[in-house]
Amino acid sequence: MARHILMCCNFYPPFFIGGAELIVHAQARKMIQAGDRVTVFCGRDDGAYEHYSMSEEIYEDVPVVRLYLRPDNFALGKNFHNPQIDAQFAAVLDRLQPDIVHFHNIMGLSLGIVSMAANRGIPAYLTFQDHWGFCFKNTRLKTEFEVCQNFSQCNDCADSLTGREGLFDHVWLRNDYLALQFSKLHRIIYPSRYLASAYATAGIPEEQASVISQGMDVDRFTAVQQARPNSPVEGPVRFTFIGYLGFHKGIPILLEALEILHGRGLLGKLFQFNIVGEGDWGVKIQNFVGRHQLTEEIKLWGKVGHHEVEQIYGQTDILLNCSVWPENQPVTIMEAMSAGIPVMASALGGNLDLVRDGETGLLYEPASVEALTEALIEVASQPARLQLWGKAAYESIRENTRDRYVQTIHQLYDQPKPEPIERDRIIACGGEVFSEIALAALDCWPQGGDRPRFVRAGWLDEPDWAMVDIFWVVGDLDGAMVRTAMALGKPLIVPEARSDLVTICRENSCGLFYATPEEAYGCWVYLQQRPELRAALGQNAQVACNDM
Q1: Closest CA to 122 of 95, 152, 102, 140
Q2: Phi and psi for 364 in degrees, rounded to 5?
Q3: CA 89 to chain centre
Q4: pLDDT band at 187 (very low <50, low <70, confident <90, very high)
Q5: Can you tell me whether residue 202 is helix, strand or coil?
Q6: What pLDDT is attached to residue 208?
Q7: Residue 239 forms beta bridges with which residues?
Q8: How much of the chain exceeds pLDDT 90, in percent?
Q9: Greatest CA span in the chain, whole angstroms?
Q10: CA-CA distances (angstroms) from residue 547 to 492, 502, 542, 543?
Q11: pTM of the prediction?
Q12: What are the residue ranges of helices labelled H in 346-498?
């Protein structure tokens, strides 16, 4: 059955081209070929246009609605909630009337657009490409080379995040708001088993999860495979790195390994390298190549168009992935394997789903200069294995096509939304700026312990209030929001310093008050453990509001 699918992502070609953007565009075109009607809603960072204005165009047969953003939209504390973007997206929904909304990378847009779809009864899906749904850094990296293993300790990286209009929010409010929005989705799609496992560990319900590989245009790279010599590699082994030249991609580790190989006189003898891309570490690599006059041994391609990538794979014996962060499902690995090229990769994240050690390539200990150097030497010293590995790599991926992806996604669209095992319970936080006492109260909760969700009251939609157990006043606010919470039958927890609110709680028996972080924590726990008392206080609040 043909559907109108609205696909959403923060960027889209041709103005920004990365792995996720290429995947979204390829999937949009495949769905159109399959008979669907597809429109793409995306952001574009371009100061030449009025902020939050929109334009429409056709890009390679795909209708595109572009919303013009600014760099500030992607700032850490501001890239997940934006009422202006929500309103613009709602207008697009009302005009286009899509049957399905499928979100991809939406950092820098607003998670409120999920509510805009859900509130209109439009089935919504989201495909994750990284860890942004629970890690504000996206990468899971606590330091440059240390991967986070405890997803409940986000305050080790940032106690607070600067929110909209300079508001100072605890990191929990960001993560809890995202989790609330995710609960409104029909399904969450993970391209790799690794990423599904990571989100399950982070507390995103597994009943929402579907693992569906994004597929690959395998036929496109078959020509590369057919052009490769049907004989063992002779001469230096050609290693190719394709990607952003940054620390999370392991470029500092690679550069140190190159220094070692050069010092041993092995560059040009056992090794040649293609380095494709640009980034923060590009200048250091250029300086290394120039200083040692290694232009024959290390070819720096710079940034190339995606249509040129076959030329690079044609000069590749093995692809090198040296990431120090756990990637999801690296496009370059899938492309190389489709071209019959084996892969040497760091042993973490989605690399483990794709590369079979000793069969389709080689895995090595991540973030280790010694391990990378030894693995490079091991591969280059036994080039006869590369041909066998390459054939096995192709066989492992040749059925993983984009046509199969589209078929699987269509089947998923036909399935009903799974019923949640348990609804989230929310403490609505009212106040412009968190007081020091309120911020410290959040840290009283045991790390990793089972806790309610803390969400700013102003971020909640009307249907969200059904999940609110308590209205907690965390700082200065006007009386209108307190009256709204009381009218909805929510018990109050208020600071002792707000004598007017304390009086309301006392005279109407509708809430508790606190003077210290420990007292605020005690109030939460006390009410959370006593649903009958919560209900009674909430009922009193409702009666009192009617009399105010």
Answers
A1: 102
A2: -140, 160
A3: 20
A4: very high
A5: coil
A6: 87
A7: 273, 318
A8: 76
A9: 88
A10: 17, 17, 9, 7
A11: 0.91
A12: 351-354, 369-381, 384-397, 402-413, 436-442, 479-487
